[in-house]
Amino acid sequence: MRKILLLCIVLAGTLKVKADDGTKLFYALRTKILTVKDYTADVKMKIDVSFMRVPQLRGTLYFKAPDKMRLERNGGLSMLPKKNINLTISNLIPSGNVTVIDMGPVTVKGKKLRLLKAIPEDDMANIILTKIWVDEANLVATRAETTTRNDGTVIMDLDFGHYTNYGLPDKVTIYMNVKDYKLPKGVTMDYNDETEATKAPKSASQGPQKGTIEINYLKYAINTGLSDDKFGKR
Amino acid sequence: MIQLLHIELFKIFKRPRTYISFGIVTAITFVIQLAMLTDGKGFVNFALSGVNEQFDIQGNILNGYLIAYIILQSLLIHIPLLVALVAGDALAGEANAGTLRLLLTKPIARYKLVLMKFTGAFIYTVLLIVWLAVVALFLSLLLFGKGDMINLKSEAFVMILQDDVMWRYALAFAFAVLAMTTIASMSLLLSAFADNSIGPIIATMGIVVVLTILSNLELPLFTIIKPYLFTTHMIAWKGFFDAPIPYYAIGRSALVLVIYTIGFLAATVWYFNKKDIKS
Amino acid sequence: MRMLLGLIFPDAGQIFIDGTEFNNSRRHLLGKIGAIIERPDMYGYLTGWENLKMFATLSDKHIKHDRLHEVLEIVGLKGREHDKFKAYSQGMKQRLGIAIALVHKPDLLILDEPTNGLDPQGIAEMRGLIRSLSRDHGKTILISSHLLYEIEQVATSMIVLHKGRKVTEGKVNDLLNPDETLVDITMTGNAGPVIAGSQWAAGLVAQGDNSFTFKMNPAHIPALNRWLVGEGIDVAEIRSRHSLEAYFLSLTDDSITAHRAV
Fold this sequence. Notes:
The complex is a heterotrimer. In chain A, 19% of the residues lie in helices and 42% in strands. Chain A is of the alpha+beta class. A ten-stranded antiparallel β-sheet of chain A has the order 4-3-1-12-11-10-9-8-7-6. In chain A, a hairpin with a 6-residue loop joins β7 and β8 (127-135). The longest helix of chain A is centred in the first third of the chain and has 19 residues, at 16-34. The model of chain B has no long low-confidence stretch (mean pLDDT 89). Chain B has one domain. Chain B is built from twelve helices and three strands. The A-B interface holds A 51-55, 57, 70-71, 73, 75-83, 178-179, 181-195, 197-198, 201-202, 205 and B 47, 50-51, 53-61, 73, 145-148, 150, 152-162, 164, 216, 218, 227, 232, 235-239, 242-244, 246, 248-250.
């Protein structure tokens, strides 16, 4: 960890001029993101984890800064990743004072973006490092790659459209590590259908697996002053 | 033919013993429902521990659909006993009571009698499963409400949307009828061999228990014979709660069960046709 | 009996009923037969009426309710038909069995041991019923029984089977000689030599310590008794066996003293 920090400091020293621009950009971006205090959105959520066979979920997603989130599905089950890997970009960006390293312009899928690395100054923060790809023209982050202390690395892709002004995406794709899941066979008494489809993921189930969550935001209602009760029991 | 069936059903449903099965189904269902009402949360937390570490699942997890699945899972192993109570008794019970003697001095072909006994047992099985659906599914829905259904498999966590569940249950119950009909036909064959009904009932249960154990043993030797045991295929109803549904495997299981049923029935007719009625 | 009804299958041979081979037209023939095989077992959880109605339906003919009432009347179960079968006495069960055997107006009744398990009164009732069925209803009735006295009283023709083989057959009146019966006499004292030297010795067929069995005309019993007393022999008991029994034993004489059926 110290090595990385040292390396970063060295890098920071060499790219001082650019870093200042990067820092400004980062804070501007964060400010914009933080203007959204809460929102209510109709969403379609697709969870793609090898051991989870969950259909596309439609529901209403409630968010309240900084970290309250709830999916309401009209009597159905709500299923969200655990709290610290939140579905909002605000949770993937370090808070407080941040050391920003400007990695310069990059082109992703034909779009000119600027890559920033943000390191929180608080050593105890869950986030160790966040790489942010920023669309400077619209002042939105189209991708964030956050390395956390407890939850591995989380990557978030954001596609913007109707709500660019608020920095809110139309579509978010989250890539994360998931632990393997297994119940003893005796407990479940499976019907072993012996098809290849069910056998395939077995080989891949060693070690941590990749999981993807894809959320399509259909309609936002922003800053309506959601009360905490909305997030209920916790 | 219709009259014969009418008589068979009349006999089945005039007997107190027939209703014991319905009582047992109701009682076990109640017990599970009661246990789930009082201790369901703990059960769900235990079952979901693998998923809960990384996902936060909220809402009515312990809904009627899940309860019904739990009930089916634990009860369907025991339904063969209840089916055997009627099917195993069908011929042997009459032999024991001496009524078979009188019955066979009437101008009825023996194969028709066997077919009617089978049809009677089948209708009883259907009604038993329908009753199971009523208490296990509809009563659970009443007690625990609706919701998305989760299905915990050993290697996967399956979630089914609530408006996508009912048709799966319809198919699952239909499959359960098929599986239990296989049991009924086996029980009837055992019944033809015996002159008292305890034997076939116990034998049916013994065969089901032993074969179920073989079906679930993860040993190489048993893996070879597993696909040929009907008990392996009796739980194919669970396939309807998977995503995607393994239709091919379920279809094959259904075929195996149908073949077994026809085989048992043919053997019963063949044996009973040449049996000396000495009781 | 069971073979006649197709319950068990013969190892060899064929069965003809009314000139028709049984196996080829089993259904047709069974429709014309009514039967009770040993015990009249029926469904205990059903009422007499339900049992009767059910077996009537199975007889392959359309049978009206009137007919059910009619047979209940014949067997004397009227008024008790709605009791559960298991609550019936043995005699009532047997009578319901007859009702079921009769209900489809069969040409032939086969009764296998119809008096099995009946008390003396039941046996007498059954006898009356069989007689009336034959006389008043014109049925042919095939009865098997080991109660020879019962057969003697109701049968017109008979076949004697011994150890699975036919010994004889014919009209009861022809076969039974009313002038000849077996008489068992128990007496005290050393009667053997006395009898051996008398005219009665010709009729002596078996001899024990104190018991002697004579084959003789029953009309001569008083004379024999008088003679024994005159010879100074105390007679403890004189018992005349039933005629059919006597006849049966005479046909199968290896067991004259062994079988003392009452």
